[in-house]
Specification:
Structural class: alpha+beta
Number of strands: 30
Bound molecules: ligand MTE, hypoxanthine, dioxothiomolybdenum(VI) ion
Radius of gyration: 27 Å
Oligomer: single chain
Largest sheet: 8 strands, mixed
CATH superfamily of the largest domain: Aldehyde oxidase/xanthine dehydrogenase, molybdopterin binding domain
Distance between the termini: 51 Å
């Protein structure tokens, strides 16, 4: 079962926003943005720009008919700067012109006068200056203050993790055109059509029903278009509204990299206590999240950080505090894992440092503290169908860990310059939007008179294969050939009030809604079939492979005939259905509840080889046992796991985002921002955990989009373990990504210059 889009992608026939056939009179927009990270905005001079031939209009905050506000969770973000600028890349105006080149040239001619103010890019500095996005939050379990005396070992330290560029292949963009009655239709590359609709309505001062948003597919998003696709769509809509013309706004790659937020960098402090046997007794952690200049999704990301602070481990005494710090960088945003990876990196760092202090391998501590059935998370939920230990044990067995460890040791004994390291990485990731109210979706299913089926849902296809999963659901419920099923664009007129396609939940939520809609129609069809066949009730009827069975016996009634007859009998062949995840809740007053429908588990072992002379390394292999539940689309799920692992490896190793002290992005192109390529790709082996059926997922499957990314964290510690072989007495700081430059700085810093090389 392959991704529905596969053939079209390969042939280059798939359409993205920039491919849509353009109507006559199309105009192009380009964004003028701040080159200063912090200051009072004194004046915007458009005189030279407006004179350029082909420029049709320039719009700033003064041209907004409604409210200049795009904030999703906190109303703290303007569409266009008003009296101050807060980051480099902050939009100030848009230029609309006859061609993209003219628009870009004019945008460059807009002059901005700014009274510069001090720039803060570091979250801890922001914290000291009391610049917070929202008040800090703390999760507690047990009694942290009274647990330390039970500990034989207490280790304190800090850990840094960097940002990450989404690097979706399709850049941010939208296309808007006016419709009858003063409305606007927008084709947007967004994960959240409803967010685009809501914010456009707010900015243009229109009721939401006058704004229609349509999404065909995205060329990747990875969280980067959950909140941050909105601004560009709204700008295109504003221009089209003003000029009564179609307008397209596509960000050039470099501007996309400069203007949009990324994965949140975190700076964290930890204190971990263990008893003699290596059991973790207490864990205290403070996360300083670098939110950038506005809230965007930061408070939700922060929350997911707290939910994942203990990863796959049971720790009886926990205190975790998370602080969202406001800095002069573009607002950071959702990125695959949504704050979970940042939290899991810190507990793994704490375990690593504890093992170093205790003179043992970190995997001994990891292994001893894995979650068991019924264990309580710091947020009050207890594990159910916990697969932490099963996947760990299966990794040890399947990949013959004793043999791997022996061969690594042998390699290290025989090599002076090259050193190998391995690390285990267990994961436990909660599935559901942490904001309970967002866990809802709906579907609209039509069966046409020729027997073909059309499905609309709230899900956005962005390469993750959700459309294929939805087709599977419809074809299974009706028991018809999958070729009969077509998924439609995601459209706010057909499906209203959608949650973004995010949190790895879109197949669960929209799949369940689709299942319900199909079941509604199927119930009508069975009644019709019973009438046609003179059966006493529809309970005698089953449809299998497009044929109607009565009491288990094949009849002459086939799908097409059944549909035609049902239509003539005036039976409803359409259904809209709704689904909301049952049984989840969370109380933010006491920070306890059951926020997740279920958890995804798995364990990976990562092996690396480091060249300790040059600092470069090779990720040799990632071998995992992953809990896919009962996968309905194994090839798609495997592709998701592999892709997520690569993205996780990149985040931990070579992908480094650097802003200078003035808040300027130095890594704003692929020449300076390195991502994994085919040569970087290790041997990835993934086994599907057997006998795992998930009662809370669609057709007993489990969400797959984000969780495997966190296996990548193991690569950081595998590299650290290799470095330890080269300099056994050194104590390196924890600072990801561990780029080759950082490997060299670690190995040959002044501090370690006198320590003999092994
Ligand atoms: N896979 C591809 N190819 N492209 C993407 O943009 N986004 C990821 C993941 N896999 C993404 C992807 C993210 S961040 C999420 S939350 C999930 O897909 C969302 O889709 P799902 O809910 O259908 O898993
Ligand atoms: N995950 C991903 N995206 C989100 C979430 C979440 O928990 N909450 C809001 N947007
Ligand atoms: Mo994914 S970060 O939830 O879009």
């Amino acid at each position: 079962m392959k991704n529905y889009d596969l053939i079209r992608h390969v042939k280059g026939e798939s359409q993205f926003v920039d491919d849509i056939l353009v109507p006559e009179g199309l105009l192009y927009a380009s964004v003028s943005y701040s080159k200063i990270a912090h200051g009072e905005l004194i004046n915007i001079n458009i005189k030279d720009a407006i004179k350029i031939k082909g420029v049709r209009g320039i719009y700033t905050v003064r041209d907004i008919p409604g409210e200049n506000q795009i904030g999703g969770i906190v109303p703290d973000e303007v569409l266009f700067a008003t009296d101050r600028v807060e980051f480099i890349g902050q939009p100030i105006a848009i230029v609309v012109a006859d061609s993209q080149l003219i628009a870009m040239e004019a945008a460059r001619k807009i002059e901005i006068e700014v009274n510069e103010l001090p720039v803060i890019t570091d979250p801890r500095e922001a914290f000291k200056a009391d610049q917070l996005i929202v008040p800090p939050r703390t999760f507690n379990l047990g009694n942290i203050d009274e647990c330390w005396h039970q500990c034989e070992y207490i280790i304190e330290g800090s850990a840094e993790s960097g940002g990450q560029e989404h690097l979706y292949l399709e850049v941010q963009g939208a296309f808007a055109f006016p419709v009858e009655g003063g409305g606007v239709k927008i084709i947007s590359s967004t994960q959240s059509p409803t967010a685009v609709q809501r914010v456009t309505a707010r900015i243009l001062n229109l009721p939401m029903h006058k704004v229609e948003v349509d999404v065909l597919r995205l060329g990747g998003a990875f969280g980067g278009k959950e909140d941050q696709a909105t601004a560009w769509a709204v700008m295109a809509a504003l221009a089209s509204f003003k000029l009564n013309k179609p307008v397209k706004l596509i960000l050039p790659r470099q501007e996309d990299m400069i203007m949009t937020g990324k994965r949140h960098p975190y700076s964290s402090d930890f204190k971990i206590g263990l008893n003699k046997g290596g059991k973790i007794i207490g864990y205290e952690v403070t996360f300083y999240q670098n939110a950038g200049a506005a809230a965007d999704l930061s408070p939700a990301v922060l929350e997911r950080t707290l939910f994942h602070c203990t990863n796959s481990y049971y720790i009886p005494n926990v205190k975790a505090t998370a602080i969202s710090c406001k800095t002069n960088l573009p607002p950071n945003t959702a990125f695959r894992g949504f704050g979970g990876p940042q939290a899991m990196f810190v507990i793994e760092s704490a375990i690593y440092k504890a093992a170093e202090e205790m003179g043992i391998d970190p995997l001994e501590i990891q292994n001893k503290n894995l979650l068991d059935e019924g264990d309580e998370f710091p947020y009050g939920q207890k594990t159910e169908n916990c697969h932490a230990k099963i996947t760990w044990r299966r990794v040890e067995e399947k990949y013959n860990i004793t043999e791997i460890r022996n061969s690594v040791n042998e390699f290290n004994n025989n090599n002076n310059i090259y050193k190998k390291g391995i690390a285990f990485m267990p994961i436990c990731f909660g599935i559901s939007f942490t904001n309970t109210s967002m866990n809802q979706a709906s579907a609209l299913v039509h069966v046409y008179t020729d027997g073909s089926i059309s499905v609309s849902t709230a899900a956005v296809e962005m390469g993750q294969g959700v459309n294929e999963k939805i087709r599977q659901v419809a074809s299974k419920v009706f028991s018809v050939n999958i070729e009969r099923v077509k998924t439609e664009t995601t459209n706010t007129t057909r499906i209203a009030n959608t949650s973004p396609t995010a949190a790895s939940s879109s197949a669960d939520l929209n799949g369940k809604a689709t299942e319900r809609a199909c079941l509604n129609i199927l119930a009508h069809l069975k009644v019709t079939a019973a009438e046609i066949l003179n059966a006493s009730s529809s309970s005698h009827i089953v449809i299998k492979d497009e044929i109607v069975y009565q009491d288990g016996t094949k009849t002459n009634l086939v799908w097409n005939k059944l549909i035609k007859t049902a239509h003539l009998k005036r039976v409803n062949l359409s259904s809209h259905a709704f689904y909301a995840t049952p049984g989840i809740h969370f109380d933010r007053e006491i920070e306890k509840g059951k926020p997740f429908a279920y958890h995804v588990y798995g364990t990976a072992v990562i092996e690396v080889t480091v060249d300790c002379l040059r600092g470069i390394y090779k990720i040799d292999s990632v071998k995992a046992i992953h809990d896919f539940g009962k996968s309905i689309t194994p090839i798609i799920d495997l592709g998701q796991a592999e892709g997520a692992i690569m993205q996780g490896l990149g985040w931990m190793t070579i992908e480094e985002i650097i802003y200078d002290k003035k808040g300027e992005l130095l890594t704003d192109a692929l020449s300076t921002y390195k991502v994994p390529d085919i040569h970087f790709t290790p041997d990835v082996q993934i086994e599907f955990l057997k006998n795992s059926e998930n009662p809370f997922g669609i057709f007993k499957s489990k969400a797959i989009g984000e969780p495997p990314l966190m296996y990548g964290i193991g690569s950081y510690f595998a590299i650290m373990n290799a470095l330890k072989q080269f300099r056994p007495d050194a104590r390196f700081n924890i600072s990801a990504p561990i780029t080759p430059e950082k490997v060299l700085l670690n190995l040959y810093s002044k501090v370690y210059a006198n320590i003999p090389i092994q």
